[in-house]
Design goal:
The structure holds 2 protein chains of 2 kinds. By secondary structure, chain A is an alpha+beta fold. Chain A is about 40% helix and about 25% strand. A 6-stranded antiparallel beta sheet of chain A has the order 6-7-8-11-10-9. Chain A has a 3-stranded antiparallel beta sheet with strand order 3-4-5. In chain A, β7 and β8 form a beta hairpin. In chain A, α1 packs parallel to α8 and α7 packs antiparallel against α8. Chain B has 8 helices and no strands. Chain B is globular.
């Protein structure tokens, strides 16, 4: 029994040390640093995108239809915000319309593979962040000034949005299992370039060539978003397509808590139960082999609990 | 004594197993040869696509058959050796019960591992033949992706590889132990039709476990939102700990099942 206690104590020390080392290294906000290296991702080199170089026909898949916000449409938007590099999202765009309708699109960090490429100019340094969604091969690229990407929340106000040249929501064909909801394009002159990846556009074009005519019944020109019912329809359809549980559009807190409870009950309560049962068996068994086996099970259960605790500690420390 | 027991267990299982393994490699080769022209877009007769589908199905069936056959052979060896008439002889051998169980466990794990290795070889052979000559870039890209991932992970790639290996070994041990405990329970509780009861328990419990794992994975996916926001090194450490948690959990379950299995063989054995 003394050996068991000694072992448990030493395990606690090791786990605590690991947790504290993680705590010591943790950084709450900054995820982008100065030491970015140029990145070649699976043979693809990402190129810088300037607003002057953007050809809408290259990024718009809806039969070349270009959606631009006219003055009236722009006035229907009360507030436009772009958050870069927040705790959960790499990029988040939210639009609030005058009639109260609200639209938001997030690119969650855990769903994206951030790829950084450094550009060094004479007087200004800019970064392009290409995001590839690992599940759906979606991609967007964000180009921003270095100073704006230092882990700070960057908010664009209505005034900034007036400077934008285009806003776009693209719909594909859900029926044919190609992109239903692709993303959005926000170009802010001299501020942000939030643009779909050119590579993605090529893929989508190929898909269109393959499948022929696209079902455009779920297309949303930008000005129709002011209609709350349509907005709801878009959200529902998006949830159906991606599945609510896959994080990108995950907003249901209750389901999240249920999931957490289920995981904890399996990973925490089960080992505790096993530990208690086998400890009792250990106490009552006289044969040496049973004592050995019960001890092994108990140690394994305790070890599992300790690893779980260290993960939970790390989770809260780094949140 | 364990070595001798293991030798006879492996002999008994591999007597039939190697034929299935050789057949699956042969099928993989033939399927690769027939499917290759279709992938590489050569001039083909009209019935070629049908042939391609046929050989593809044959290839998939050979893989499934090898895995299934391994399971069946492990099942038969354990049941016959412990719970049929042969059991009287087995349990009168001058060896410990733990050695008998360990021998069965090791042979079962080795057979399972060998089956998966052969399946992997089959897939490699198939891919190599299909891509040979024209689509060599596909293979190059695969290795490029692997090297890119290793480059990104750095030293953690070794830790992750070891953890994956540990998880694979533990899953193999767990699956064999699970089969054995089902056979043992079936043989203890049933007076007639022990095999049927054992198979029933096996499928019933494995369905329940499968459902639980499914629910667990769904929960994990649902809980993706509370995955912590960390920098690169923290994230790697977190992931390594997460895999360690999985290892500890499976190890705990395996040792608990082993203890139970040993207890049943030691105290509750019924060779009627």
């Amino acid at each position: 029994m003394k050996k068991l206690i000694a072992l448990i104590l030493s395990l606690i020390c090791i786990m605590s040390a690991i947790s504290f080392s993680a705590f010591a290294e943790s950084n709450d906000t900054v995820t982008l640093s100065d030491d970015f290296q140029s990145f070649e991702y699976f043979g693809e080199t990402y190129v810088r995108i300037n607003s002057t170089e953007v050809d809408m026909n290259d990024v718009n898949i809806e039969d070349g239809v270009k959606v631009e916000l006219n003055e009236t449409q722009r006035e229907s938007i009360k507030k436009a915000e772009v958050y870069l590099n927040t705790k959960k999202t790499l990029a988040s765009v939210s639009l609030t319309f005058i009639d109260g309708a609200y639209f938001t699109a997030d690119f969650m960090k855990e769903d994206c593979l951030p790829i950084y490429e450094k550009y060094s100019g004479d007087d200004v340094e800019e970064y392009e962040i290409c995001i590839n969604n690992i599940y759906y091969d979606e991609g967007v690229a964000t180009l921003a000034k270095k100073s704006e990407l230092r882990g700070k929340k960057t908010t664009l106000t209505l005034g900034d949005f007036y400077e934008s040249s285009d806003f776009e929501i693209v719909a594909g064909s859900r029926k044919e299992n190609i992109y239903f909801y692709k993303g959005k394009l926000l170009i802010f002159s001299d501020k942000f370039y939030f643009i779909e990846n050119e590579l993605l556009s090529e893929e989508v074009k190929e898909a269109i060539d393959y499948y022929g005519e696209i079902d455009t019944s779920v297309s949303f020109p930008a000005w129709e978003i002011t209609n709350p019912a349509l907005l709801e329809k878009l959200k529902q359809a998006t949830d159906e397509y991606y599945g609510e549980s896959w994080g990108v559009y995950y907003t249901d807190n209750e389901t999240e808590i249920m999931a957490l409870l289920f995981i904890v009950s399996v990973l925490l309560l089960l080992p505790i139960g096993v530990f208690v049962v086998f400890l009792i068996l250990f106490k009552h068994s006289r044969k040496r082999i049973y004592r050995k086996l019960c001890l092994t099970v108990s140690i394994a259960a305790i070890f599992e609990i300790l690893v779980l605790i260290s993960l939970i500690v790390m989770h809260f420390v780094c949140k | 004594m364990l070595k001798k027991l293991l030798k006879y267990d492996l002999k008994s299982i591999f007597k039939l197993w190697w034929i299935a393994a050789a057949a699956s490699v042969l099928v993989a080769t033939i399927a690769g040869v027939f499917i290759s022209p279709m992938i590489n877009g050569k001039d083909l007769p009209d019935f070629a696509p049908l042939m391609g589908i046929f050989f593809w199905m044959l290839f998939m069936m050979s893989l499934t058959a090898l895995i299934l056959l391994s399971e069946v052979l492990i099942f038969i060896r354990f049941y016959k050796n412990f719970f049929s008439d042969e059991g009287y002889l087995t349990f009168t051998l001058p060896v410990k019960r733990s050695e008998l169980l360990n021998s069965k466990l090791i042979s079962g794990v080795l057979t399972t591992a060998a089956s998966y290795v052969v399946c992997f070889i089959d897939i490699c052979v198939f891919i190599f033949i299909v891509n040979f000559g024209s689509n060599i870039e596909t293979i190059q890209t695969f290795f490029k992706i692997i090297s890119q991932i290793i480059k990104q992970l750095g030293a953690y790639s070794i830790i992750y590889a070891l953890e994956f290996l540990a998880i694979a070994v533990l899953i193999a041990i767990g699956s064999v132990l699970f089969m054995y405990i089902c056979i043992t329970i079936g043989s203890i509780i049933a007076k007639k039709g022990k095999v049927v009861v054992a198979i029933g328990i096996y499928y019933g419990v494995s369905s329940a476990i499968g459902f639980s794992i499914f629910m667990f994975l769904i929960s994990l996916a649902g809980a993706s939102d509370w995955f912590p926001n960390m920098n690169d090194s923290e994230e790697k450490l977190f992931l390594a700990l997460l895999f360690l948690l999985v290892i500890a959990f499976i190890f705990m379950v395996c040792t608990a099942v082993y203890t139970w299995q040993y207890y049943l063989l030691d105290r509750k054995l019924n060779l009627n």
